[in-house]
Design brief:
The strands form 2 sheets. Strands 2-1-3-4-5 form a 5-stranded parallel β-sheet. Strands 6-7 form a two-stranded antiparallel ribbon. Helix 1 packs across helix 6. It is built from 6 helices and 7 strands, in the order E-H-E-E-H-E-H-H-E-E-H-E-H. By secondary structure, it is of the alpha/beta class. The two termini are 12 Å apart. The radius of gyration is 16 Å and the shape is globular. The chain has 2 domains: 142 residues, 3-Layer(aba) Sandwich (Rossmann fold), CATH 3.40.50; 32 residues, no CATH class. The chain binds flavin mononucleotide.
């Protein structure tokens, strides 16, 4: 089966997540079409039979180009088994209200685009302090302080649960083949 793995990324973690999803798909004997939605490249998608789209939350929303892509492709996406991976930091918060808030990040996107993915997975992202400029590092460090996330800015911190992600992909593959 051919599965589109479309992603948007700003700092690179969602690309890493999409690559892991594609590797899981290929390991299961299927074909993954890895596509960077924000690349602006023309996409010749062929005929994917399912889709897993991934996008990060920045300032409480998904990248604009990602939302445009979903809006444009919504009717196709709704016609095949499809799934969404929302990448955020809030989902790893130790405060239940914040985790709950993170589970609602997709609501606006899905309402606005009409996309109805069969499955939604919430993956924790990464803090790449060493790659941020001074201003961004300051903002993200304050956010991390508030959420009890690591504030050691001398290195990067990755929170993605790769085992949970693989279980999600296996679930989507089962669904897609049902
Ligand atoms: C400028 C900036 C703003 C962010 N805003 C949020 C936010 O509002 N909520 C949240 O849960 N995570 C937020 N994050 C955390 C990102 O979702 C996390 O770093 C993720 O790994 C970024 O994915 P990417 O590397 O694919 O861009 C923010 C990160 C950055 C750098």
């Amino acid at each position: 089966m051919i599965i589109l793995v479309g992603y948007a990324t700003i700092e690179g973690q969602t690309r890493k997540i999409a690559e892991a999803i594609a590797a899981n798909i290929e390991a299961a004997g299927d074909r993954a079409l890895l596509f960077d939605i924000t690349s602006g490249a023309e996409y010749a998608l062929g005929h994917p039979e399912a889709a897993i789209l991934c996008a990060p939350v920045h300032a409480a929303r998904y990248p604009h180009a990602f939302a445009s892509f979903v809006r444009q492709e919504a009717s196709w996406l709704n016609g095949v088994p499809s799934a969404f991976v929302s990448v955020s930091m809030l989902i790893r918060s130790e405060f239940e209200e914040e985790q709950e808030e993170a589970t609602h990040f997709p609501d606006g996107l899905l309402a606005e685009t009409g996309w109805k993915p069969a499955r939604v997975h919430h993956a924790a992202g990464a803090l790449r302090y060493t790659e941020y400029d001074f201003f961004k590092r300051w903002i993200i460090r304050r956010m991390a302080e508030h959420e009890n996330a690591p504030t050691d800015v001398s290195r990067d911190h990755e929170f993605t649960d790769w085992v949970a992600l693989k279980a999600f992909v296996d679930d989507v593959l089962t669904l897609a083949k049902a």
